[in-house]
Write a structure and sequence with these properties.
By secondary structure, the protein is mostly helical. The protein has a domain of 111 residues. The chain has 8 helices and 4 strands, in the order ββββαααααααα.
Length: 186
């Protein structure tokens, strides 16, 4: 709709229509009109709605070869380490490994438990469900999924191989060290 003002200038008064961008198949909520250009990254509010990407891809198992070999031969250990960190020590690595082992003979239903902890990890760090749903990844690529989860925790400063008590000890150690360049001398 075009309006003509008293001085003879024309202005467009039609309401602005914004179409939310689409990423993959999911509709991404758009921000207020004009908040950022199409080639700019999403705002923090949009990022919270969308989710953050994983720090490594699903098939980057070679990034941590020790964990990849351990997971290939004993996925229960990697699962136990992840469970202990995500449960903040409530589930020990030994108990998590034992739960995983018990579910293997039961028609390979350990993927259900693996998907549950992957979902917990995604919620904790607001990660996107990519490249597939948690259950699908743990059903068809359980070792790659476990390796990716291990790397994600490690990249965020939580080393699952150290366990929850190891993480707490590391946190305590960093709190008690004096800053560099300072000493007790006068």
């Amino acid at each position: 709709m075009v309006e003509v003002s008293s001085d003879g200038t024309q202005s467009d008064t039609s309401p602005a229509v914004t179409i939310p961008p689409v990423i993959g198949r999911e509709l991404v909520p758009s921000s207020t009109p004009g908040s950022h250009a199409p080639d700019e990254p999403p705002s923090q509010e949009e990022q919270k709605l969308i989710g953050r990407p994983w720090t490594t891809a699903l098939f980057d198992c070679g990034d941590n070869q020790t964990n990849a070999v351990l997971t290939a031969f004993c996925p229960c250990v990697t699962f136990g380490q992840i469970a202990e960190i995500l449960d903040e020590g409530q589930t020990s690595c030994t108990l998590g490994s034992f739960m995983y082992i018990l579910l293997v003979p039961a028609l390979c239903t350990c993927w259900i438990l693996g998907a549950y902890y992957r979902q917990q990890l995604r919620k904790k760090y607001n990660l996107i469900s990519s490249p597939a749903h948690d259950r699908t990844l743990h059903l068809f690529c359980p070792c790659c999924s476990l390796c990716q989860e291990f790397r994600e925790l490690h990249n965020r400063g939580l080393d699952p191989s150290q366990g929850w008590l190891g993480y707490l000890a590391k946190q305590q150690e960093t709190r008690t060290l004096p800053p560099d360049g300072q000493s007790m001398d006068k």
